[in-house]
Design goal:
This protein is of the alpha/beta class. Helices cover 38% and strands 20% of the residues. It is built from 11 helices and 7 strands. The chain has helices at residues 13-24, 29-33, 57-66, 82-85, 101-114, 129-132, 150-160, 179-186, 196-205, 224-234, 242-252, and strands at residues 71-76, 91-98, 118-122, 135-141, 161-170, 211-217, 257-265. It has a 7-stranded mixed beta sheet. Helix 5 (101-114) links the parallel strand 2 (91-98) and strand 3 (118-122). Helix 1 packs antiparallel against helix 9 and helix 7 (150-160) packs across helix 9. The longest helix is centred in the middle third of the chain and has 14 residues, at 101-114. The model is unreliable at 1-10 (pLDDT under 50).
Length: 266
């Protein structure tokens, strides 16, 4: 994997473009104010780690960094722990960082059920980087598009990793699939989404030159009611429009997720 040393925070044009792209997709204040639920909230039940982890490029990249001897893992934006727990039995100790307390409780429960030594750290990255400490391998899945200051975020991942870092995210902003429904229900035309190419441009600004793997996760069976709840919350719509939203989501068809694995050695 490509080498990365002494990353520094970015204030360059790529970082500025990233901020602008994310800020342009913020939910308008008047729509958010009328939302019956917090549209940014995630249900921990949707992120419970599977018993048998999916064999993905991200998992393989992290296992390669851990090597035959295994080691400690820091999972930034851990949710319920799927990224770190997918590396068992190579993980000797797992540290989970998340800004949501309910996610950390789900992470702790999953670790306990699997008998994994662990510690949880509550707060946003990189604000809690010192509290989290270092690990052999740092993983961070599906956090980048929620991070305005991406340069310092990435640099802190590298600084915390003794061997290397694995970042997984969508090829384009994960909310973009709902853009047709924003137009249908709110008359709101969403701007062009940020993409993984924008992430890689910020990587270059902070001195990270990673390996990049593009791949696709095929549409998988989901719990339709939970998926509908998620869409309703994201779209800031009330319960009485549930039937309309269900029909609109069905028309969008199965979702194949185009993903990117970004990894580098430290």
């Amino acid at each position: 994997m490509s080498q990365h040393r002494n990353a520094v925070s970015s204030g360059g044009p790529a970082a500025a473009r990233w901020r602008e792209l994310l800020q342009a997709r913020a939910i308008p204040a008047e729509i958010r104010a009328a939302a019956p639920q917090d549209p940014s909230r995630h249900d921990p039940a949707r992120f419970v780690p599977p018993v048998v982890p999916e064999d993905t490029p991200s998992r393989r990249a992290a296992l390669q960094l851990l090597g035959s001897e295994g080691g400690t893992v820091l999972d930034v934006g851990c949710g319920a722990g799927a990224a770190g727990l997918a590396l068992l039995p190579k993980v000797s100790y797992l540290i989970g960082v998340d800004h949501a307390e309910d996610m950390l409780r789900a992470f702790e429960q999953a670790c306990t059920e699997r008998g994994v030594a662990h510690r949880s750290v509550h707060g946003p990255w990189p604000d809690v980087a010192r509290q989290a400490g270092a690990a052999d391998v740092v993983v961070s899945h599906h956090v980048g598009y929620n991070t305005l200051e991406l340069g310092p975020f990435l640099a802190a991942l590298g600084a915390a990793a003794r061997r290397g870092v694995v970042v997984e995210l969508h090829a384009a902003h994960p909310g973009a699939w709902l853009d047709p429904l924003w137009l249908q229900f709110h008359g709101l035309r969403r701007p062009a989404p940020a993409t993984a190419q924008d992430v890689l441009a910020v990587c270059a600004e902070v001195g990270i030159h990673p390996e990049v793997q593009h791949w696709t996760r095929a549409a998988q069976p989901r719990h339709p009611e939970a998926e509908l709840d998620f869409s309703m919350r994201r779209l800031c719509l009330p319960a009485q429009r549930r039937g309309e939203v269900a029909e609109a989501v069905a028309r969008l068809g199965p979702r194949h997720r185009d993903l990117v694995t970004i990894s580098w050695s430290t």
